[in-house]
Each structure stands twice: as C-alpha cells, then as structure tokens.
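re: the backbone from monday

yeah here it is again, tokenized this time
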C-alpha cells in the first residue's frame, strides 16, 4: 500500500505542478505586456515634463519608472525559470530531493512568490514544493539564509532599495535622447548630488528648538532644588538660634540694687555666664536666618511658577 501511495502521490505532484507552472507562465506574459505599455506611457510623461521644465515632478517619477522596469526584468527571468521547471517536472516527480541543476530555479521562484502580488500562481507552486521538500528548504530560500541558491539578479530587481543618482540620471538622459529633447541635466545633477538630512531623529531645527525649550526648565528645577536646600538650612539655623535662647535665658540672674541718693531710679546688674553681647548676637543670627528663609521660599515659588509655564 505504501508503494502505491508513493506512486500515486508522485503522479499527483507532477500533474499539479505542471498545471500551476503553465498558468504562471501565461500570467507572467500577460502582466509583462501590461507593464510594458505602462512603462512606455510613463516615459512619454517624463519627456513631457522635461520639455515643460518641471524638474521636481521628474525627480519623483523617475524612481517609479526604475522600480517598474526592475520588476519587468525580474518577471522575464522568472518566466525562464518556470519554463525550465516545466521541462524538468518528470525528474522532480521521480526524485525525493531537489536536483542540483534545479535548485536555483526553484529557490528563485520561492523567493519571488510573496514579493510578486501580480502572480498568485507562484504561491501555489511554493506550497507544492513545501509539501515535497519541507519547510526548511522553503524558509532558506524565502529568507535568504546562507547557502541559498536564489538568483542574485532576482534579489536585486525585487529589492525595495532606492535607486542611485547615477541610475536616475542615465535614465533621464536616455529619455531625452529618445524624444530629441534639448534638456540641460545640470539641475538634476545638482539635485541628485545633494545629501539630504536624515529625519529619523528629527530635523536639526526642531532638535535645537527643543533643547532651547528644555534649558529654562532644567535651570528652574536647579534653582528650585537650591532654594529648597537654602530653606532647609535657614530653618535649621532658626531652630538652633531658638534652642540657644531657651538654654541661655535660665542662666541669667538679676540683682536689684537701690541707690539711696537716686531713689527714683533702679540699677539692675546682671551676673552669670551669659552676657548681653552674646544674647544680641544670637538674636541677630535668628533674624538673619528668618529673612533668608523668607527669601528662599519666595525664590522657590517663583521657580515653581516658571516651571508650570
């Protein structure tokens, strides 16, 4: 039974693969003819823009023409690979492993299948090869893993990389010569040679303005922190002054002496360790600390209002 199933599966794979590959070849020819007409019309539009001196539009349209031309050339190579696979279907149907002479063609078709939306038959061919050769063989070709046999021209033509300035300029010169235009390429050369700014991190003007806007916020936060520290120091000094006053006042002893000659006045003498000079200094330090605390709190309020703005 296993031999019968194996023979049946072989014949079934060959029939399905032959049908899908034949449909893919017909689709490629149809799409190529359509794209060729579109490319001719786009070239005529570019020539008209060059004649009218609309350089800005030309610089945008020329990239689209190059991308469409690359896809058209990739389809031509895929058509040859599909015809080659179609001719070798009996060999594919009789062998379990992929033949070495067909690896490049099959890997290129697998790589192009998800990248060519106009050719849905390529996805069907990819699913057939997945069932026959396994997912590892398919993923190696689709993800361009080391050792893959995908055609390098197919990779370049289906790439989304922007064309170089030389390629764009050569295409414009070719179009101008084909339609006999007196076109001066100096403007296009100057525009293509410009090094445009990388805007992934934002333009330089926006970044400079953002830095200028953030600078007063940082300064206000620093002043706020310094004022809060000054307020804390002033409060500690005030507390120390009041504690010194409280500890020094009980040590003062007063003696009242009555002068018999001047009975209308009292003479008060002070004794003890503390003196009036030290008491006055402590009072002055306390007043200075209170004034510093008031100024620091006012500066903190002003910094907070500036940060809110």
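seq for it, each position gets an aa:
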């Amino acid at each position: 039974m296993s031999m019968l199933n194996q023979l049946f599966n072989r014949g079934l794979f060959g029939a399905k693969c032959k049908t899908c590959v034949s449909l893919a070849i017909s689709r490629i020819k149809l799409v190529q003819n359509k794209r060729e007409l579109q490319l001719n019309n786009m070239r005529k539009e570019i020539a008209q823009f060059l004649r009218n001196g609309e350089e800005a539009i030309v610089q945008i349209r020329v990239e689209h023409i190059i991308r469409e031309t690359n896809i058209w050339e990739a389809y031509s190579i895929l058509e040859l690979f599909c015809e080659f696979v179609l001719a070798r279907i009996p060999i594919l149907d009789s062998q379990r492993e992929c033949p070495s002479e067909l690896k490049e063609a099959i890997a290129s078709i697998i790589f192009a299948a998800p990248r060519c939306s106009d050719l849905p038959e390529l996805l069907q061919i990819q699913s057939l090869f997945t069932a026959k050769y396994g997912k590892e063989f398919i993923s190696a070709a689709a993800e361009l893993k080391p050792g893959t046999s995908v055609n390098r021209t197919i990779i370049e033509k289906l790439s989304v990389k922007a064309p170089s300035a030389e390629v764009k300029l050569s295409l414009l010169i070719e179009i101008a010569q084909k339609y006999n235009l007196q076109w001066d390429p100096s403007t296009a050369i100057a525009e293509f040679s410009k090094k445009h700014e990388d805007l992934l991190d934002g333009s330089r003007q926006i970044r400079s303005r953002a830095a200028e806007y953030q600078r007063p916020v940082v300064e206000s936060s620093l002043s706020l922190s310094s004022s809060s520290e000054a307020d804390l120091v002033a409060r500690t000094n005030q507390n120390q002054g009041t504690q010194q006053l409280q500890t020094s006042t009980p040590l003062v002893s007063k003696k009242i002496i009555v002068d018999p000659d001047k009975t209308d006045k009292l003479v008060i003498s002070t004794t003890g360790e503390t003196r009036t000079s030290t008491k006055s200094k402590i009072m002055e330090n306390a007043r200075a600390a209170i004034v510093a605390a008031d100024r620091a709190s006012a500066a903190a309020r002003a910094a907070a209002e500036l940060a809110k703005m």
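The CA atoms of residues 227 and 299 lie 6 Å apart. The first strand starts at residue 253 and ends at 258.
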